[in-house]
Amino acid sequence: MATKDLPITKIEDTLTISPHIKKKQYFFQGYDTTDTIFEFNHHEGLMQTKQPLFFGPGYKNEKLVYSSAKKLLNIGFLKELKLNQIQLVSKASNDAVNIFVHVQKLVINTYGNGLFGVGSAGNYWECFLYIDKIFINNKQFNSKVYQLYAKLNESPIKMDSVFDTIMYVAQVSLNPEKILNWDGTDLYKLDQKHIEKQSVIELSSRLLAREFLKDIQNKNF
User: Can you say whether the dihedral through the CA atoms of 174, 176, 178, 184 is positive or negative?
Assistant: First the structure.
């Protein structure tokens, strides 16, 4: 699926929430990611060629992205509830609406900027979030599969400088065994602060919260 020409994702308005929804208290138990299928794909070049983890960003960078995912998902859902003036409580109770979400699949795609913009894949990143179960008070809310998509400019992973790239290739030519210890950090730099400050993961979770709020408007629970 080509996404280069899709607009970046913006959430600029709040929802109209029914009074009977606002008067309740809600406890968000978080996301269950114990058996989530996680995919991380990095792309380079004008043809947006997918880079293999081996001789690409590497497993180390993949783990860094995934380590932030659950926290950012939780932050996004809670943030959107707060922005829509939903009453949140800090623990589960019989008086509260207790929400629990199971993540079926999470896909993060990054598109690099090439070397100084030459051969750029678009310099953006995106998130596909698939939710197969939402529980309210330990009962499955509905059978709907939620599919959310978020896109932002500025990929958090980019290739390093031309000089470092040339130096790395020279080192490999002198010592071919170096490539056997590839972890991706020799050529690709991951901005962890960027991932957590402006994240497609958090944004996709906010979109899920909005869909959930729309769906509960006419429900009695």
Answer: positive
70, 67, 88: which is closest to 79 by C-alpha? 88
Does the CA dihedral 211-75-34-66 come out positive or negative? Answer: positive
**11: closest CA among 84, 66, 99?**
84
State how far the alpha carbon of 192 is from the alpha carbons of 57, 114, 121, in Å: 14, 19, 20
Cα–Cα distance, 59 to 53 (Å, whole number) = 6
Which two three-digit tokens encode residue 31? Answer: 């996301």
Residue type, position 209, single letter: A
The angle formed by the CA atoms of residues 181, 52 and 7, to the nearest 5 degrees, is 135
Rounded Cα gap, residues 12 and 44, in angstroms: 31
pTM of the predicted model as reported, rounded to 2 decimal places: 0.86
Contact 150, 107 (CB under 8 A): no
Question: Which tokens in the block code for residue 216?
Answer: 């509960």
Residue pLDDT, tens place only, 130-175? 999 999 999 998 888 999 999 999 998 877 654 455 555 555 555 6
**Taking a C-beta distance cutoff of 8 angstroms, is the pair 201, 168 a contact?**
no
Pairing of strands 188-190, 157-159: antiparallel
Query: Which residue in 103, 133, 102 sits closest to 37, CA to CA?
Result: 103
d(CA 10, CA 45): 26
Alpha helix segments (H runs only) across 84-199: 162-174, 192-197
